[in-house]
Amino acid sequence: MTDAAMPEPLLRVESLTKSFGGFVALDNISVDIRKGERFGLIGPNGSGKTTLVNCISGALRPSRGRVSLAGEDLTPLPPNQRARRGIARSFQIPRPFRSMTVLENLMVALDFAAGRGVLESAAHRRDAAMSILTRIGLAPKAGALATALTQVDLRKMELARALAMGPKLLISDEAMAGLSHSEVDEVLDLLMSLGGEDIAIIMIEHIMQAVMRFSERVMCLDAGRIIAIGAPAEVMANARVQEAYLGV
Ligand code: ADP
Ligand code: MG
After folding, report:
1. pTM for this one?
2. Nearest ligand 1 atom to alpha carbon 204
């Protein structure tokens, strides 16, 4: 394909630099992510992974550079406006409204999304909430209080709340911590099915098998720089990655 025929990327990060005082946490990062892509982000502790996704979600403003979504420059926009344009963040620690049921939690998320004028009536929102819970496999727990959910079901509810925003890009920053192997696989299967629905996902994860299984491409950061990007097996085999990340 010629450059002119290349489809526009969903997310474009251009020459992004983030400093905290004199410390450069991200140094001139450029990367494109396509629609529906499953993208793994790895690197040792302190390499800049969370800082990068914070600059993408808007939680942090970059010192230099630019973030755009489907051609629109997001750099000046605060997190809530980026969320409305389709960037959803799945939090490390699920923060549901504990005194509400699973369905009510979803309805609250849909209320927020309705600010875009997508959904009007309460009945419509209820149906939309149930349909998301069905997709995520949580429909049988719709009436349960959030406090009664297991860890894995809380992660699924968090994912359902993110889906309520109708995201184009979902960011998952170490969302699997504390889950068993089979639970990790369960959440991965769910995440992987979203790629088929054209939702791109950036996944930060310590569990290397999970990253390998999930990702179409992996990018490895070290000290705020990209040291490798490409197919998972290639990146894992890269000598710099093994040195920096695996301590080999
Ligand atoms: P990772 O997610 O890869 O573990 P982070 O992006 O959290 O790494 O951190 C990258 C570097 O930036 C670390 O050295 C961290 O201490 C530093 N850092 C992150 N946030 C801040 C902040 N708000 N103020 C100062 N330094 C920070
Ligand atoms: Mg981090």
Report:
1. 0.91
2. 2
Residue at 165: amino acid letter:
M
Report the nearest atom of ligand 1 relative to the CA of 60: 23
Single-letter code of the amino acid located at 168: K
* Nearest ligand to residue 173 Cα: 2
- CATH fold for domain 3-94+165-246: Rossmann fold (3.40.50)
The domain limits of the chain are 3-94+165-246
Question: pLDDT per position in the chain (248 positions), as tens?
Answer: 455 556 789 999 999 999 999 999 999 999 999 999 999 999 999 999 999 999 999 999 999 999 999 999 999 999 989 988 999 887 544 567 888 999 999 988 888 777 655 556 778 888 999 999 999 999 999 999 999 999 899 889 988 988 988 899 999 988 888 899 999 999 999 999 887 778 999 999 988 889 999 999 999 999 999 999 999 999 999 999 999 876 65
SS3 of 78-119: the string is: CHHHHHHCCEEEECCCCCCCCCCEHHHHHHHHHHHHHHHCCC
- Which atom of ligand 1 approaches the CA of 47 most closely? 3
Between the CA of 220 and the centroid of ligand 2 the distance, in Å, is 13
**Ligand with smallest separation from the Cα of 45:** 1
Instruction: Tell the burial category of 135 from Cβ atoms under 10 Å away from its Cβ (0-12, 13-18, 19+).
Output: middle
